[in-house]
Amino acid sequence: MINKTVQSLAEAVQNIHDGATIMISGFGEAGSPIELIHALIDQGAKDLTVVSNNTGSGNVGLAALIEQRRVKKMICSFPRTANSTVFPELYNAGEIELELVPQGTLAERIRAGGAGIPAFYTPASVNTPLAKGKECRVFDGIEYVLEKGIKADFSLVKCELADRYGNLTYHATARNFGPIMCTAAKTSIVQARKIVEAGAIDPEIVVTPGIFVNHIIEVSKPANESELVSQKLTYPW
Amino acid sequence: MINKTVQSLAEAVQNIHDGATIMISGFGEAGSPIELIHALIDQGAKDLTVVSNNTGSGNVGLAALIEQRRVKKMICSFPRTANSTVFPELYNAGEIELELVPQGTLAERIRAGGAGIPAFYTPASVNTPLAKGKECRVFDGIEYVLEKGIKADFSLVKCELADRYGNLTYHATARNFGPIMCTAAKTSIVQARKIVEAGAIDPEIVVTPGIFVNHIIEVSKPANESELVSQKLTYPW
Amino acid sequence: MVEKQINIGWSKTEMAQNVAMDIPDGSYVNLGIGMPEMVADFVPEGRELIYQTENGLLGMGAVPMAGQEDPELINAGKKPVTTIPGACFFHHADSFTMIRGGHIDVCVLGAMQISKNGDLANWSTGAANAIPAVGGAMDLVAGVKRILVITQHNTKDGKAKILNQCSYPLTGKGVVESIYTNLAIIDVKDEGLYVRKLGPNVDFEYLQKHTEAKLYQ
Amino acid sequence: MVEKQINIGWSKTEMAQNVAMDIPDGSYVNLGIGMPEMVADFVPEGRELIYQTENGLLGMGAVPMAGQEDPELINAGKKPVTTIPGACFFHHADSFTMIRGGHIDVCVLGAMQISKNGDLANWSTGAANAIPAVGGAMDLVAGVKRILVITQHNTKDGKAKILNQCSYPLTGKGVVESIYTNLAIIDVKDEGLYVRKLGPNVDFEYLQKHTEAKLYQ
Description:
Radius of gyration of chain C: 18 Å
Oligomer: heterotetramer
Structural class of chain A: alpha/beta
Shape of chain C: globular
Helix content of chain A: 10-25%
Number of helices of chain C: 4
Shape of chain A: globular
Structural class of chain C: alpha/beta
Number of strands of chain A: 10
Number of helices of chain A: 7
Strand content of chain A: 15-25%
Number of strands of chain C: 13
Helix content of chain C: 10-25%
Distance between the termini of chain C: 25 Å
Strand order of the largest sheet of chain C: 4-3-2-1-5-8-10-11-12-13
Mean pLDDT of chain A: 97
Low-confidence stretches of chain C: none
Low-confidence stretches of chain A: none
């Protein structure tokens, strides 16, 4: 019987290796799989390339992973956020690389990676510094830049409901990058607020089909990043 | 107040002009907006380019539109189907053009058209006659072919539920090309089995966001193409 | 002296009102972070606008009541929002299908600099030590049908923001349709910058003096 | 004479069984129209396979009981199907994200011709008067991890289907992993076609005689 459920956060992230490329869902704190990130901190993998829209805030979650010097490169659209000090300090000290990508291009590159599209043309960033060194091409009189699909070794994603096949639903704007990141990683690791019986999710409302998911762990009461930050907590506690 | 509902099938299709490119949803009869197609037959527009996975069956729906000599070109992946005689006859007589596109490339070209992606690379059809004359390019040692996004003037789509904003859900495998065709047409015209109050569709389960839809008409008891075909009916009746 | 007079030009709320007046009924609208968000408070009666936020919500409603916030129901500025009946959620690739695909009618953005041909710079000063952060701005200006800019006419230290050429890195080239400042409403046309309306107690000469690029009436 | 003996090789159901044996537990599988569909009936006990059909269903179940058919719940062959608990529906672009993106483990397809280096021709004879129809075959062979072909070893008029080079237009080049015929199971390797298993009462010589391409043991 197919059952993608695992019994602990540690088991969920156990195979992540040094040098891995990891996609991490979330837009700010919404959709950020904070418990999985903390498990990854405990697990020890380093020299990571992380693909995520932001760089975390305070000293928990993604910011804590960066603070532990485990991330050598960030691929993101908006590395500055409220209460984000860890990334800016390391960046200014030259201790972390940044690949800055327009948000829509980031989303499309991830989707392309998952969909077997090696490269596509987009109008975003043409005539800006972010298109520098990239191939530009005119279609029907408009200039576009060639962007490549991104794949990852792992994705860490937060969702709402999951079943044993890995079918997922999300909550509100926590959906954001989760569905496309599940498609673009060799191994997708998902924390669900609740794991339900196969068939409990209406086939019409599944957002992420199980084929894109490898491991599921139930985290019934996920922390809110902003609360941890307001309490000035640092991970590891 | 935004209200995209129209009062008749005739009103829904009234602006379709000669020479228009029209996307028509459906995979076989599942999702085929047969009442909208019949309204288009009544309306009279001609010299149409139709983008649809198949070419219809019997002498109703898309097959009837073709039989009326209103389609100058079909863009599709599978023009032969059970009970499809109209297209093959006209094609062999040289009276209709065919652009044959692999099904996944067809879907991705439609999605690209809707997403502002003018062109993308795909591995499908490389080294086959369908890649002939197209640009090929190697990424990471694998050969891909450049394919262009497709846009349409109109799309005709069948859905399950709709609200006044044009938010849509679908039924089972009738979903197929509907969601992407709504994104790729300047004007998307949708027949819904039921029009419901705004807010009656849970925001988490909307498949087509209303922004992609222009006109909605309720067709509460749509015909099944296969039943009409087995009765050997011809449209116009 | 004219500069010291109190009621020169429009207030921020009046600026937001000016923008809101130019958005037709039924439009799909994306509002940038900051001053652009104010536009939603001044939509003329009888018009219904639908707000898209690029983090995955179409049909964004008002700010929630205190205590009703959901940390996973937020806007692009990461602030709590609500949904209207008829809203829907979607993932980021679908969100930018709306944006890049030309489905959003109007986007209202802030600006650091605007050039006479409608170039916009609003994401980076290009300073060596600044952490660059672009978000969705480049996708929005490349894809949305109409880009309206709302900004103070001059920088805090009195420098012109409407220039012959932007010195900061561009967000997009030739993308701005109209500029709504505290001093004027200016349309970007092929032939140059045309003043459509002057703010209260602003005359053309005064406006030109505070603008590097040549203005036309 | 050997050719007239009755029980040479496998029956169609045995061929389907041979394919089913080679699909591991937990695989995501796409079955082509026709003989490939039979594979689902012979999955060994204890294995759970998930069937994808490219028209938008993952978790396809058995054929519905008479009278329970839904004309909008069909497979790629446009025949009525059912769903298993844990199924889901999706649109065509998402479906081919699964296929093109390498997420489907196994695809079982029919064939008109297969070449010694694994080229597959299964969509068109290239005849002038034939209506060409490709469907999802080219996307499947380009994207799915393992392409298994199930086919009669020879054409109805006795011609070889396993050739040095395909004469029909290709579906894909070098895509076939293994060929399951009534006479043998043959693996396509870099060095050539290797016979893994001979059918009942088939010897290597007989097999080679019915095959244009050179076979290895």
